[in-house]
Design brief:
By secondary structure, this protein is of the alpha/beta class. The protein has helices at 3-24, 29-46, 70-80, 119-133, 152-163, 184-188, 193-199, 213-224, 259-270, and strands spanning 61-64, 140-145, 169-175, 178-179, 182-183, 203-207, 231-236. 42% of the residues lie in helices and 12% in strands. It has a five-stranded parallel beta sheet, sandwiched between helices. Strands 4-5 form a two-stranded antiparallel ribbon. Helix 2 packs parallel to helix 3 (70-80) and helix 4 runs parallel beside helix 5. It is globular. GO terms for molecular function: transketolase activity.
Length: 271
């Protein structure tokens, strides 16, 4: 798939993110938009998945460790055909298929239920070990938030991944620099991420624009060449990517747009 096709899909995904959060009157637009391009790339370009066989044991797995960004995953899954797009408008509503965080028991295409930060990458390590023990060549891709790295569980899992030489793991850090209370560096600094992961025994790939498909593709191609250790892609992203008044604004971490803001956001995205 070429870059323009990916951009077109990502615009639809971002539009759906805004619309579903508006309909729900709650959710997390900033961090969903920042990782939307990465998740689009994974499902449309990188991962070995088949919507007709969502439980194929040989499929690649995806874990959204930053589970509050579920709208990004839901929008991609719906666009891909895992469930009807009409479901997106029911986000967070009573009886809806789509809860505020991913639910693997009820949503086709969701491999792991996530929400408690740090647990997603821990699940990833277990899945990767299981696949290797079964001599299954599938990979596990996991997206984490940079604020999520403040959780100690992340580093326990990272230590285990390196110890067991799990080169079937590719972690992607959605490095947008912001969390619900403001800048990461002011809340609880997590830098330098590259040196920290290197010290834990990981292969580190730095991507200076995680919202550009050429840069994303380049990073994953570098990750593919690694053997004998897990890889982390530290992707510099923009919180609220594609929406002018949301970009780089911490207040849009967990705030739904009103009707006028929704219209402005969609106009920004589709232009």
């Amino acid at each position: 798939m070429n870059k323009q096709e990916l951009i077109s899909i990502a615009k639809k995904v971002k539009k759906n993110i805004v619309e579903m959060i508006y309909e729900a009157r709650s959710g997390h637009p900033g961090g969903s938009l920042s990782c939307a391009d990465i998740i689009t790339y994974l499902y449309y370009e990188k991962m070995n998945v088949n919507v007709e066989k969502p439980n194929d044991p040989n499929r690649d797995r995806f874990v959204l460790s930053k589970g509050h960004a579920a709208p990004a995953l839901y929008a991609v899954l719906a666009e891909k055909g895992y469930f009807p797009k009409e479901e997106l408008k029911k986000l967070r509503k009573l009886g809806s298929l789509l809860q505020g965080h991913p639910d693997s028991k009820h949503i086709s295409g969701v491999d792991v239920s996530t929400g408690s930060l740090g647990q997603g990458i821990s699940n990833t390590v277990g899945m990767a070990l299981g696949l290797r023990n079964q001599k299954n060549n599938a990979k596990v891709y996991v997206v984490l938030g940079d604020g999520e790295l403040q959780e100690g569980l992340v580093w326990e899992a990272s230590m285990a991944a390196a110890h067991y030489k799990l080169d079937n793991i590719v972690a992607i850090i959605d490095n947008n620099g912001l969390q619900i209370d403001g800048k990461n560096e002011e809340v609880m600094g997590v830098e330098p991420l590259d040196k920290k992961f290197e010290s834990f025994g990981w292969n580190v790939v730095c991507c200076d624009d995680g919202n550009d498909f050429d840069k994303i593709d380049e990073a994953f191609l570098r990750a593919d060449k690694t053997e004998g250790k897990p890889t982390v892609i530290i992707a510099k992203t923009v919180k609220g990517s594609g929406v002018s008044f949301m970009e780089n604004k911490a207040e849009w971490h967990g705030q739904a747009p009103n009707k006028e803001e929704k219209a402005k956001a969609i106009k920004d995205i589709m232009n």
